[in-house]
Structures are given as structure tokens and as C-alpha cells.
Amino acid sequence: MVTVRLFGMTKMLAGNQGTLSLALHDGKRVKDLVAIIEAAYPKIGELLQKKKVLVSVNQDIAHEDLEVKDGDEIALLPPFAGGSEGC
Amino acid sequence: MLKKPAGGVLAVLGGSTYQNLYDSPPRVLRPCRTGFLNILRDGRCATEPEVEEGQRMSLEQVTKADHPVTDDDAMLVRVQREDFSIDEELRRVRRRSKRIGGIAMFLGTARDRSKGKDVDSITFEHYEGMAQKKLREIRERALKEFDVIEMLVLHRYGEIGIGENIVLIIAGAEHRAEAFQACKWAIDELKQITPIWKLEHTPEGEVWVEEHP
């Protein structure tokens, strides 16, 4: 079981849940995690496919082949919008 | 002036100043700065103006692990809900070094228009931990890759009213050109790599801002 943190629009697309608990077995990779999310939340899946939403593992942007281990800190990151408008 | 370091020991010629050493190419020496080679004398950062002839000092590559972030370092990179005082933050940068002769600042504030629509207020959400990590990376890269002496990076989160402060970057360098360059790079980089998201509250409803211009 892994916990995936959601932010911004991904949180909204998951019905305002801050986290998702997903069944992911040992040896699975980021792309397997993405497939599970796609099945449960197609709109988030679409954004993941378009790379508009990125997956981070342990606070670093993760490649789809990265193995996900028990206890990893996983998050879905929508496009960043820090700073101020037009600055 | 600077001979090739051997075994972590640096031999210097008399008449040099520590500043001469710090200014010597390839400029990897900085007075007690994480990520740089620091000159140590008796295990402490060497900052005296004159170097004695034949004096031996050790060079140390200081990393995060053996150079814990001090309170002052931590205050130079912050993600916080509350507003900040620009004067106070400027003082924080200025007191880091008397060699600072040019300070460039970028202040981002909340506008009442976005893409032609009215905005009543903005809520910023951040990824606690990763946001601070990315802002620390920006400061550390600015100190390493630009000729700046100090940099402060602050970003607020939570609901922010129109006209209020959002983000503050202060770059202190010896001269203005480096300060301007590092300040511009830092705000551009912040927008690219920092996990912070913006929810605009408009008369028509709430909108997550997908991409910044």
C-alpha cells in the first residue's frame, strides 16, 4: 500500500482528497502507479499522460521506470504556479 | 598566490589577504559557505584580513551533513503564511557581509486581474518540505553559479489579498550587474521548479492556475 499526496487541481479532480491510498506491490514502478491512478481517476490519468502532472518520489521528479518502495513519499504535482502573475 | 592544494592543505605566500584567496580563480573558496571549499585555521573559518607567511591552513569542502543549517541560514529561505517586512529582510541580507555593494530585489505582489478577469484574492498551496528544498537549491545554486554574496528567497502560502506580498528575492553582490542577474535567474527558476500552486478566487468561481506566463 502506498500513499500518494495530491495538490492543486489533482486534489480537486480526486474529489478534494488530499491523499490516495493505492495497492502497489513490491517491485512495481512509477508507470504501474500511473496505470492504477489512470483507471481510478481518468482525468488525472490524462494529465499524467500529457506530462502536465508529474510524479515525485521522495521529493524529486521521478522517471516512469523508477521502482517504488514501501515508505516512499509519492506526490502528484500539477504545473507549478509560484511567484506572482506576470512577474 | 594560490598554490595547488595537496592533501587538504593550502600553502599561501606572505602578504596575501584572505580576500585575495577568495578572489583567486577558480573561485571555489568562500568564507564558510556550504558547498564551497572553506579555509579553516585551527578548525575555524579563517576571516582575518592578513595571511602570515608560511602559515598553514586546512581546506575543507563543507557539505550539508557537516555544516548544519544555522538559524540565520534557515531564515534566508522560507515558506511562510505570514507577511514579511522588506526592511527586515534587507537588513538580514546586508548584515551577512560588508562586501555587499549592490542589492537587487524582486517583490511579487497579488494583482486584481488575471488573463483579463477580475481576481478577488489568491490562495497559494505548497508541498511542505519539497518547496523549501527547491528554494534552498535556488539559493545554493545562485551562490555557486553567480557572483553573489548572499541571497534570500521567501514565498508566502495561504490566502493572500490583492496588493499583498507574495514572493521576495533579495540578491546581494559586490556590484549591481551580478545582483540583477542572480535575482532575475532566481525568480525565473522559482517559477519553474518550486512546487507551489495558485488558486485564484474570482467573481465567477475558483480557478487553479495551470501555467504561469
Description:
The complex is a heterodimer of chains A (87) and B (213). Chain A has one domain: Beta-grasp domain (Ubiquitin-like (UB roll)), CATH 3.10.20. The mean pLDDT of chain A is 91. Chain A has helices spanning 8-13, 30-40, 42-49, and strands at 2-6, 19-22, 54-57, 60-61, 74-77. Chain A has 3 helices and 5 strands. By secondary structure, chain A is of the alpha+beta class. In chain A, α2 packs across α3 (42-49). Chain A is globular. With 213 residues, chain B is an alpha+beta fold. Chain B folds into 2 domains: 9-61, no CATH class; 71-208, Aldehyde Oxidoreductase, domain 3. Helices cover 25% and strands 33% of the residues of chain B. Chain B is built from 5 helices and 14 strands. Chain B has helices spanning 18-23, 71-75, 86-94, 130-145, 176-193; strands at residues 9-11, 37-41, 44-45, 56-61, 77-80, 102-109, 113-114, 117-118, 121-126, 148-156, 158-161, 165-173, 196-202, 205-208. In chain B, strands 1-4-2-3 form a 4-stranded antiparallel sheet, with no helix packed on it. A 4-stranded mixed sheet of chain B has the order 5-10-12-6, with helices on both faces. In chain B, α4 runs antiparallel to α5 (176-193). Chain B is elongated, with a radius of gyration of 21 Å. The N and C termini of chain B lie far apart (48 Å). Residues 1-6 of chain B have low confidence and may be disordered. The A-B interface holds A 5, 7-9, 12, 52, 56, 59, 75, 77-87 and B 106, 108-111, 114, 124-127, 129-130, 133, 155, 166-167, 187, 190-199, 208-213.
